[in-house]
Amino acid sequence: MLYIDKIIETLPYGKTKPIKVKASDGEVYVVKFRTDGMARKDRGITNEFIAYKLLEKLDWQIAPLELKLIQIDEAALELAENATIDPLSLFYMSNSLGTNIAIPYKDNCEKVEGEIENQNFIKHLRTIDNILLNDDRDTENPNILKDQTVSNRYYAIDWGLAMDSIDVYKDIITNTINDRMMYFQTCNVVKRPGYLLRNNLTRVTLKPQEIEGIIHEIIEEIPQEWETYNDRIYLEVILCARAVSNKIFE
Q1: From CA 5, how far away is CA 216, in angstroms rounded?
Q2: Which segments of the chain are extended strands (E)?
Q3: What predicted TM-score, i.e. pTM, was given to this entire model?
Q4: DSSP 3-state assignment of 134?
């Protein structure tokens, strides 16, 4: 578990107002909060946790890896109150005591503009986005960074609105999830209008025996203090079905 040693700034992107920090291991991270403006806590960071852990275990180098857990405690809040950060960052942080997430900060990166030239990156990104029911990428807000120092190097970020814009969690909490379980297991979100890579048809095929075990391991690693921990059985069923399905790419 990491702790916050220094708060540097609020990042200039992201509605959830993440902050850039120096952590107790001496490295710089982007911290995202348990409270982030959604109707309930922990949904956005649960999506991020699953996405980054899945990429890490599959060794798909298309995002800033590896995600760490970081503690927000009273000492961190004292640092925040004396730092120059967005008021919303301070508000979200103040309501996020406990275990949050930290993503490695990448220097020399800018929001991607124009065509993405790396077809291998596209193939892997479309696959994980569809598995995680994430269509939150468009031309205005691609949630993709381009490395300015390495040719053809891209990083995908921000799976906070995965799980069909968190509708999965809403249906779980309202006990209507079984009515839409088939939809969540089979819908193709990367063909929706507006999704940045909708016209590209490439994907990665995963082995059922391997991916189902990986997903189970990740789901069981969701911190027990998060409100979404009790949703994990439904999340595993949906993700395992999607990870081995051909239908979601039809």
Answers
A1: 33
A2: 2-10, 19-23, 28-32, 68-72, 98-104, 109-111, 144-147, 154-156
A3: 0.97
A4: coil
